[in-house]
Design goal:
Largest sheet: 5 strands, parallel
Strand order of the largest sheet: 2-5-1-6-7
Low-confidence stretches: none
Helix content: 40-55%
Number of strands: 7
CATH class: Alpha Beta
Number of domains: 1
Number of helices: 15
CATH architecture: 3-Layer(aba) Sandwich
Mean pLDDT: 90
Strand content: 5-15%
Length: 349
Amino acid sequence: MAVEDYNWADRLVHRLAFGSKVPQDVLCDLEAQFYAQQIAQQKAMAPIFITSLPRAGTTVLLEVLARHPALVAHSYRDMPFVLSPIIWRRVSSRFHVAQDAAERSHGDGLMINVDSPEAFEEVLWLREFAGHYAAKGIKTWDRLPDAFVKTFRDHMKALIASRGVEHGGRYLSKNNANIARYGALARAMPDAKFLLPLRHPLDQAASLLQQHVRAMAEHDATPFARAYTRDVGHFEFGRNHRPILFGEFATDGLDALHIDYWLAYWTAAHRQFESDMRAIVLDMEALTSGVTKVETVFEKLDLAPSPEAQAHAGGLLRPLPHRREDSGCDANLLNAATALYETIRSRAI
């Protein structure tokens, strides 16, 4: 559901949910009290995390995998009370209406409606780790407290229970910001699977820049759009942009309205995968061109074949646009990013 589709009532409920912590906290407490048994019965084992910087293909992968009957992901219907999926589903179900799919605000041809999966998990991270979100940028995570890991597992269980899945559902997450805490998540949840879509850095940097400019215009034209992305923790682009403060990334001397900024950001974000062997690296050029099959992705994620998901992939996957001509970027930045890309790509499935 695009932000521009929110009517006055939708915006009122959103502001109620995010205007203070009280409404979210009250519903969380009620859900934990009244649905404790349902939540505890869920296993929530072997969650799947799709993560990368934006514009790598994370949403396409989410769209495909969310069609698999064994997986449960957030959808637009979970908004705005994302942290209380059981109660909110029960309350809001009486107001559910069908909605035709429309192109999402990114302008990339992906069609969505209220039942489409989306990345809303960051609301939980914002609530639990507010100190990480500074004005200059978002700090990375070295470790996750045991108490938070339990809270996160309980949230997965609640989401699965809200869909009526009986003890066998697996949580599916698409969250670009998880690249800031990938190592901490992998250590805290050794049963999890991590899927890293990999796109050529120049192509991705050009797309990041384009989307940043687009989001800035949207935020200037529609203040609610800016508030919405801030509330759900989407700081990737626009007036709310806060970079993740990867160790080697320094914004000094870099302008987010120039491609060099995004190339440097790409390299800093992906350096952690240079020698890491835990993430499943997916070459998006190979997937979108048909060289890598969707069935191979399912197999790597320990998922049975799904004719529905495979058919949906056939309608979504298209060759990625290239931006390999001279882009005015710094040659040293591009060479470093390309070398890192080739190193990581050599391990792709």
